[in-house]
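ARCHIVE CARD
Drawer: 12
Card no.: 0347
Subject: one protein chain, sequence and derived structure
Cross-reference: see card 0346
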Amino acid sequence: MSTLPKVAWIGLGIMGSPMSENLVKAGYDVTGHTLERDKLDRLAAAGGTAASSVAEAVRDADVIVTMVPASPQVEAVAYGPDGILENARRGALLIDMSSITPQTSVDLAAAAKEKGIRVLDAPVSGGEAGAVEAVLSIMVGGDQADFDEAKPLFEALGKTIVRCGPHGSGQTVKAANQLIVAVNIQACAEAVVFLEKSSVDLAAALDVLGGGLAGSTVLARKRDNFLKRDFKPGFRIDLHHKDMGIVTDAARNVGAALPVGAVVAQLVASLRAQGDGGLDHSALLRAVERLSGARV
């Protein structure tokens, strides 16, 4: 019998499916629930167990992981008679790896404490590729003892794992991460259009830029997206739009000015309004092309 904790995984989307499968590969007993039947079948094929409801998934779990799109979805699976807090056992550890508002995380931790359930907020960065390769960056908020307990599980999912402070801190750092990523993608997109309009060999230019100070994980990860105009979603514009709302609202609450971030947030919103919300966030290139009168 495995001595590893039993895991309930709620949310098997682009990120959640490969992450849960990596736990199965690491020897964890994983029971998952999501709304899509094919995603449940995928987990079962990988060696996990499919559950028909949140309540069924969490009932016997030592650790519960949620990986859903936004705050409303976290609240939907956490609260109510069929939710996590009413059905998980006392002493269970709830790890929310979604990207949500810091206040939602703080409120969830307080509500869970009344039920004897511990909580960590642990959003991730690295996109679909990072999830598949188990090299995610994981930023965590919550008590040190709970973080220490969860560390082996996190190590099956990522490479950079840091406790950033109390409840909500992980989400605050994730908001900053999304600000940096969006601004970086926008800068790369503008550079691509500039280079192409200047008749420069784009592949060669991106190679040399990647080797200098302009190099970044964003440029390395999204290089082929730009070259091939391949915008199959690894992280959708819709989700980055949500995250830019989180960071601009949180920054306003603490009195931090985000002049460049505010502009990029509007560009992300405009791309979504033009019907590109389901594309990868590297599709910011399309917005720059439209402004430049180039191909889309």
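Annotation on reverse: The chain has 14 helices and nine strands. The chain has a mean pLDDT of 96.
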